[in-house]
Amino acid sequence: MKVDFINSSYRRYYQAHKAQMMKALDRCFSKGDFILREEVARFEKNLADFCGVKYAAGVNSGTDALKIAYRALGCGSGDEVITVGHTFIASIEEIVHLGARPILIDVGEDGLMNVDQIEAAITEKTVGIVPVHLSGKVCDMARIMAIAKKHNLWVVEDACQALGAHFDGKPAGSFGHAACFSFISPKTLGCAGDAGGVITNDRKIYEKILLLRNHYNITQNALLGHQPKAPKIMGWGYNSRLDNIQAALLNIKIKYYPQMLKRRRQIAEKYNKGLAGLPVVLPTQQPEQIYQEYIIKVGNIWKFKKYMQDRNVELLVRDTVPNHKMLGLGLDRFNLPVTEKIAKELVRLPIYPELTDAEVDYVIKCVREYFLPAVKKSAK
Ligand SMILES: Cc1ncc(COP(=O)(O)O)c(C=O)c1O
User: Fold this and answer.
1) Can you tell me which atom of ligand 1 is nearest the CA of 182?
2) What average pLDDT does this structure show over 210-223?
């Protein structure tokens, strides 16, 4: 048996929904609907409803979502923004691109922002906090929002890996002043390439986002009935519109999304059960998380990966050097011991809804066989 890390997910999803997808493409081409048309507006409504917020704007990518959200909140030159070192580089990169300084704090063993470190990192230049809901788990938003309120800071949730996760019954992305999502193909709600979204409950922030994503052009959005009030001062914007074709594909997938999340959870539960008792650290669990990834910690990641590869199971090992240790980024002043430790231990198992039970069982069998000698030794 062969179990690949992600490609079978794309192929099987396509086979299962091909007729609908082709019909959607035909609709876009037949009408000539490519830029900021009906499918984009429909997807924005679907996204806002799914997240329980008032407004959603489609953009080009999760990276652009971050850039636009930071800018909509006024982030600029000389500002300091607190985020984590243990994240996909985009959360940090877009702070830097705006001329602001990222202030990196550590994570806990669960990979999420260590909230105890936030207040010590605040200076008179701090303007915002960017918690990252990594691997489908949500940061402690109750405490983060309380700290932000106390110090008058904005919060942008990087929820790129957490669409559909909840914290205390509330959707990820609905806590901060704005939140960002990525719909790049491997994400839980992935399109056929790149796409992203920003959500907010604040009308003013939303209007600014609509301008920023479209060259600060106040007339084009009027085509969609989104005519924002003319701002007193025009600004520099970006070309970061969500493509209408991608939106059409996402409008199909979002219908199946709750079902897809359910299947991911079933697979995670199979892994939890099947890998229990082995000398691996299983992922910490949150009751309301989604399973963007299933990450285990093993002693020798490369030996383990090779063993599984030889048995036709593809694993993903990435980011073994943490962002702040990357050469040329100028971030090595940060001391983040947990981030540094866990970067060397993490291995991702395949976890897409299209996996069959037989494939999941096969992955479990291979992992168990790998650890059998260690299990036998400890039993003696
Ligand atoms: C946590 C996080 N932030 C930001 C991004 C950037 O999203 P994109 O790749 O769509 O630009 C990603 C995903 O790639 C991510 O996982």
Assistant:
1) 10
2) 77
Ligand 1 closest atom vs CA 195? 10
Q: Are the C-beta atoms of residues 308 and 366 closer than 8 Å to each other?
A: yes
Q: Which pLDDT belongs to residue 234? A: 75
Query: What's the gap in Å between 46 CA and the centre of ligand 1?
Result: 20
Encode pLDDT of 163-205 as tens digits: 999 999 999 999 999 999 999 999 999 999 999 999 999 999 9
Q: What is the DSSP string of 204-261?
A: HHHHHHHHHTBTT-TTGGGGGT--PPPPSS-----B-BPBHHHHHHHHHHHHHHHHHH
Task: Tell me which residue has its CA closest to atom 7 in ligand 1.
Answer: 62
For the CA of 63, the closest atom of ligand 1 is: 11
- Residue to probe by mutation, ligand 1, list 95, 113, 184, most atoms within 8 Å of CB: 184
* CA distances in angstroms from 172 to 19, 153, 288, 343, listed in the order given: 32, 19, 10, 24
For the chain, domain boundaries: 7-249, 257-379
Which residues, including other chains, have CB under 8 Å from residue 186's CB and lie 6 or more apart? 6, 9
pLDDT of residue 235: 85
Q: Kindly report, residue by residue over 265-275, the tens digit of the pLDDT.
A: 999 999 999 99
Between helix 357-379 and helix 301-310 the angle, nearest 10°, is 130
Residue at token pair 């697979």 = 267
Contact 314, 3 (CB under 8 A): yes
Residue appearing with tokens 């001329």: 99
Q: What do you get for the CA distance between the two ends of the chain, in Å?
A: 33
Tell me which DSSP letter residue 134 carries: G
Neighbours of 7 (CB within 10 A): 12
Counted residue by residue, the chain has a size of 380
- CATH numeric code, 7-249: 3.40.640.10
Ligand 1 geometric centre to CA of 83 (Å) = 14
d(CA 12, CA 6): 10
Distance CA(270)–CA(265), nearest Å, equals: 9
> What CA–CA distance (Å, rounded) separates 327 from 289?
33
| pTM for this model (two decimals) | 0.96
Locate 284 and state its tokens: 């910490």
Residues with CB under 6 A from ligand 1: 61-63, 87-88, 90-91, 132, 158, 160-161, 182, 184, 194, 196
Q: Which CATH superfamily is domain 257-379 in?
A: Aspartate Aminotransferase, domain 1 (3.90.1150.10)
